[in-house]
Amino acid sequence: MTLRLARSGLLRARRSPLGTGLARFAGVTLASAVVGSVIVLLGGGSPVGVADGLIQGSVGNTSALVSSLGQATPLVFAALSFAVAFHAGVFNAGGQGQFLMGAFATAVVGFEPPFAGLSAPVHLLLVLVAGALAGAVWSAPAILLKMWRGTDEILTSLMLSYIAVNLNDWLVLDKFRAAAIQPGTNAQTTVLSPSASFPLLVQGSSLTFMAIIAVVACIAAMIYYRFSTAGFETRLVGANPRFAVASGIFSTRKMIMAMLASGAIAGLGGSAVVGGFFHADITPFNTSVGFNGILASLLVNNVPLLIPFASVFFGALQQGGLGLQILSGQSQYIADTLTAVIIIFAALRRQPHRLQAVWSRLGSRRPGGLEPPASPRGDASPDTAAAEEVQA
Amino acid sequence: MNVLTQLIASGLTLGTPIVLAALGGMFSYNARVFNIALEAFMLVGAYFSVTMTQSLGGSVWLGVLAGVLAGGLLALIMGIGVLSWGADEVILGIAFNLFALGLTSYLLTSGSNSGRGFIQLGHGLPQVELASLQHVPILSGLINGHDPIVFASWLLAALAAWIIYRTRFGLRVKASGESELGARAVGVAVWRTKMWTFLLSGLLSGLGGAELALGSVHLFSQDITAGAGIIAFAAVVFGGGRPGRVILGALLFGFAEAGAGVAQVGSTVPPDFVLMVPYVAAIVALAVLGGGRRSRRQGAA
User: Fold this and answer.
1) What is the mean pLDDT of chain B?
2) In terms of Cα–Cα distance, which of A318, A208, A322 is closest to A272?
3) Selection from A57, A60, A39 nearest residue A322 by Cα
4) Which end of chain B is more exposed for a tag (fewer CB within 10 A), N or C?
């Protein structure tokens, strides 16, 4: 997996000139806009109206902008969660489940009697610890089964997410249900007690201090992976576990620790959502922050320092969707759709040879002579693709 | 109806969509494509089978055809992304799953359908009811109350096994999976072969989605598959791409949920736990019985 990703260029720092990067960005944006417009037309809406609504809802005024940052906060955690595991060679596809469990633990510790009487800083700390712990616990089966039995962690973590959805449903509906604040809304638990409510950065918004913690966590991850011996060893495990073992690194332990850290970070994302938005655990938890975090991380090649930027982008998109729904009554799910479309285009790594031939025939400055000869079927084996990237 | 008959009837209803999608995934798996997007193909299949039934004048079979084609189309697009544009199949698969969820949710909640959250049809696929079998214990569970797609899935399962084991195409698929360069050296059109496996996985998953939506509930609701495609993929990995084991796995997970459902009736166990059962069963099966002979990693190295 990791090897293949390395080949496909996802792990490698691509030394492409800025121009190529910008062209790529423009291409992805344009293609996503076209596909998005087609989808809006299919749904009977007007693309221009939807685009306008998305922009107004996300960055149209100060309060929208603040809300966009609020939406971005849990995404940063979810994205960082994916990146942390990914650099250790573990594909944590189950951030959604860890996120949900973190949200539940946060809510429960936030109002249950033994904790509810504590002083504010202690209680808040406990709430965050609970969120992180629950996330880590939910990530453990996937990695332990991978280590003991070789079970693929992508599948197990993904399936654990679906189990978490049902578990959360049961816990909220049957065990911890409280009267909803507004009738007709989702079922929810008791609201966090005042000592556990998250300090706000902007009064009356959803932007809590978790935004700062999120950025700090990204910086910490960067420092760990780039400047510490342990982080270097972890990356080595991710690049080639057998080589790492041969160099005297406990690959198994590194991978388990990375996955647990990943789960804990995803759990903190759950805390951020509970603290910033619902102030309780709800069901159905109608958000795919855990999954969108994977996409946000992939958008920036899992580079921790860039994750906040990708998250703000996707968070703004989410907020734009909400604004669209509230202001003009159109479906908010266009935001989720666009997020996925952007990643689909961003995941494309090399151009088919036929298209390259078309470009060079159109007189582009692409040096055609350096290309390997196109195979008769127009496809490339991984090896020719790799060779191509080396030449590029 | 006795318990065993009930279990068989319910297990077939729950298991058939999974079996169909797993058959599709089996083709990809043999070409060593880690096709996690079965969920996406199922979801669009379910959505378009219901909406097309609605808009094409109520013909369920046209709806089924639309669902199958929608799944196939999405799979072709993904195939082009993976095979021609060099995208990683796991990443693209996750993105496609979210895309299908976003797209169907968007279309479901915009335009004329806004505000309802689901589309209910007046009728679905016709169901076989043989009065003469009504009191035959096990056979009535196998036959009665099921729609033609359930029976078609048995034929398709046999057909898929035959294709993989006994035809030139099946050999080419496996050759492309074993060694791409080796396959090309003996003249197999690897790109085309892998594209066919994508198409087959999309068509069969689309059929599975159509069965899910039109078979017994006759409606589409947001995220109606809720991970059925992932379960199907787990069955594929569990079976190691071998048709018999894949089908067995898919039925096992379907019957696990059916069994839990039958056991839950009259007990105090909440229904949420019944919904968890196929996932737990899949994780346990993968962990205890292993995920087939070949893992993806060996292929990727």
Assistant:
1) 87
2) A208
3) A57
4) C
* Nearest Cα residue in chain A from B36: A155
Domain residues for the domain of B28 are 3-299
Say whether both A391 and A277 belong to one domain: no
Confidence band, pLDDT 50/70/90 cuts, at residue B47: very high
Question: In terms of residues, how long is chain A?
Answer: 392
Whether residues A210 and A118 share a domain: the answer is yes
**Mutate which: A157, A160, A333, vs B, most B CBs within 10 A:** A333
Which residues of A fall within a CB distance of 8 Å from B115? none
Domain enclosing residue A388, as ranges: 351-392
Q: How confident is the model at residue A262 (pLDDT cuts 50, 70, 90)?
A: very high
Cβ-based burial of A63 (10 A; exposed 0-12, middle 13-18, buried ≥19): exposed
In angstroms, what separates the C-alpha of B2 from chain A's closest C-alpha? 29
Grade residue A60 by pLDDT with cuts at 50, 70 and 90: confident
Instruction: Decide if A18 is inside a domain.
Output: no
- Residue that finishes a domain, picked among A320, A343, A375: A320
* Nearest Cα residue to A50 out of A311, A329, A313: A329
- Are the CB atoms for B295 and A150 separated by under 8 Å? yes
Burial class of residue B186 in the structure, from the number of CB atoms within 10 Å of its CB (0-12 exposed, 13-18 middle, 19+ buried):
exposed
> If phi over 0 gives left and psi between -120 and 50 gives alpha, with beta otherwise, what is residue A9?
left
| Residues in chain B within 8 Å Cβ distance of A162 | 226-227, 230, 276, 279
**Nearest beta carbon to residue B237 from set A93, A155, A380:** A155
Q: What percent of chain B has pLDDT over 70?
A: 94
Tokens of B81: 């992304």
d(CA B85, CA B81): 5
Would you say residue A6 has pLDDT above 50? no
Give a yes or no: residue A300 inside a domain.
yes
Residue among B88, B276, B288 minimizing CB distance to A8: B88
Interacting residues of B159 by C-beta distance below 8 A, sequence separation 6+: none
Q: What percent of chain A has pLDDT over 70?
A: 85
Tens-digit pLDDT profile for residues A102-151: 999 998 888 877 777 777 788 889 999 999 999 999 999 999 998 888 88
Both A275 and A314 in one domain: the answer is yes
Mutate to test the interface with B, among A10, A50, A379 (most CBs of B within 10 A): A379
The segment with the largest mean pLDDT, out of A47-56, B63-72, B141-150, is: B63-72
Complex ipTM value: 0.89
Q: Which of B94, B109, B191 sits opposite A379 (nearest CB)?
A: B191
* CATH number, position A88: 1.10.3470
- pLDDT at residue B23 in the model: 95
Crossing angle of helices B89-109 and A333-346, in 10° steps, is: 160
**Can you tell me the mean pLDDT for B189-215?**
93
Beta bridge partners of A200: A208
Tens-place pLDDT, residues A137-157: 999 999 999 888 888 889 899
Q: What is the CATH number of the domain that holds B18?
A: 1.10.3470
Tell me: pLDDT of B10 over 90.
no
CA distance B19 to B155: 12
Nearest to B91 by CA among A79, A252, A153, A10: A10
Query: Which residues does residue B219 pair with via DSSP β-bridges, in sequence order?
Result: B120
Number of domains in chain B: 1
Q: Pick the closest to residue A156 from A142, A139, A135 (CA basis).
A: A142
